[in-house]
């Protein structure tokens, strides 16, 4: 999917024209995957555009950098201001925001200590990451990274090669998205979304110990479900648990809440089950300011 270009990017502390946000070909992060990232969204609300759960995303960026020993030269407060400045400069009412910090040009080799950190914030309009329809999933032959090899709590750039290979395999086979299993065969997550299963009214999702990212949208969905009085469990799932589920859906910042129609050619009872529909509607209300209980999750782009 081509990126719809915006006018500016925030790069190392300043707004620069989109095409001038460039790095050297010997950038450390380009060769070794030494970077951390976040995906955040801006939604239109009655009071103007607002960033959804921006503090949580930036705290996770800071935590990821600390875990991977990548010095982050800007504070959460500075990155918050820069994010709002960028979205205002690009004139977005609704957009995707990519926060990205990586080791830049200065040294080569696996020794990480001698390369400076570059920090980037970019925004662009990206309405339907997964096409806006119920998904057909395929279990990938690629296994999710072992959590003892790559910490799933850190959203690093290097481990996304695993996701890219799985997604390519699935789309080449005619599916919409890949489901990855952990090394022990338990369900982990999709290439860039957390996965949920509903059976007998109970909502279940895999834990971080299965290699799944502790998703902010996943946490949002769990909160919404609890507020609806739905029993939730974060626990290990087998692939057969998804086959036997009444409903399956995925969620992520880029995707939102998206129902799953089938897994490995096995049709689910409904393309969009009742609970999936209720959660998707409540998620839309929370992100767009339509539900007062969740206004705390919104950071206005324009100060009053």
Automatic annotation (TrEMBL):
Q: Which gene encodes it?
A: ilvE
EC numbers: 2.6.1.42
Query: What species is this protein from?
Result: Kitasatospora paracochleata
- A GO term for molecular function: branched-chain-amino-acid transaminase activity
Specify the enzyme's EC class, one word. transferase
Q: Where in this chain does the entry annotate a coiled-coil region?
A: none
Alphabetical list of Gene3D superfamilies matching this protein:
3.30.470.10, D-amino Acid Aminotransferase, subunit A, domain 2
Q: Which family does it belong to?
A: Belongs to the class-IV pyridoxal-phosphate-dependent aminotransferase family.
What this protein is called in its record is Branched-chain-amino-acid aminotransferase
Co-factor(s): pyridoxal 5'-phosphate
Classification via InterPro entries: Aminotrans_IV (IPR001544), Aminotransferase-like (IPR036038), B_amino_transI (IPR005785), BCAT-like_C (IPR043132), BCAT-like_N (IPR043131), Class-IV_PLP-Dep_Aminotrnsfr (IPR050571)
């Amino acid at each position: 999917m081509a990126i719809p270009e915006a006018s500016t990017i925030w790069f190392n502390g300043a707004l620069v024209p989109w095409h001038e946000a460039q790095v050297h070909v010997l950038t450390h992060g380009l060769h070794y995957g030494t970077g951390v990232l976040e995906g955040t969204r801006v939604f239109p609300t009655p009071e103007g555009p607002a960033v959804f759960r921006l503090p949580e995303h930036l705290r996770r960026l800071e935590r990821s950098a600390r875990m991977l020993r990548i010095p982050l030269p800007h504070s959460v407060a500075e990155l918050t201001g820069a994010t709002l400045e960028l979205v205002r400069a690009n004139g977005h009412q609704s957009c995707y925001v990519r926060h990205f910090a990586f080791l830049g040009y200065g040294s080569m080799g696996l020794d990480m200590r001698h390369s400076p950190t570059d920090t980037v914030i970019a925004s662009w309009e990206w309405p339907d990451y997964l096409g806006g329809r119920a998904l057909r999933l395929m279990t990938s032959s690629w296994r999710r990274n072992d959590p003892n090899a790559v910490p799933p709590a850190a959203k690093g750039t290097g481990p996304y090669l695993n996701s890219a290979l799985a997604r390519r395999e699935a789309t080449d086979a005619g599916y919409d998205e890949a489901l990855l299993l952990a090394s022990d065969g338990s369900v982990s997550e999709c290439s860039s979304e957390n996965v949920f299963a509903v059976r007998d009214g109970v909502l279940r999702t895999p834990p971080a110990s299965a290699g799944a990212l502790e998703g902010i949208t996943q946490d949002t969905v769990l909160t919404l479900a609890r507020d609806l009085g739905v029993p939730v469990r974060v626990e290990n799932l087998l692939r057969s648990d998804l086959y036997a589920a009444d409903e399956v859906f995925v969620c992520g910042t880029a995707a939102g809440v998206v129902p799953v129609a089938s897994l490995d050619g096995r049709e689910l009872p409904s393309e969009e089950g009742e609970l999936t529909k209720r959660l998707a509607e409540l998620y839309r209300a929370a992100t767009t300011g339509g539900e007062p209980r969740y206004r705390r999750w919104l950071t206005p782009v324009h100060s009053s």
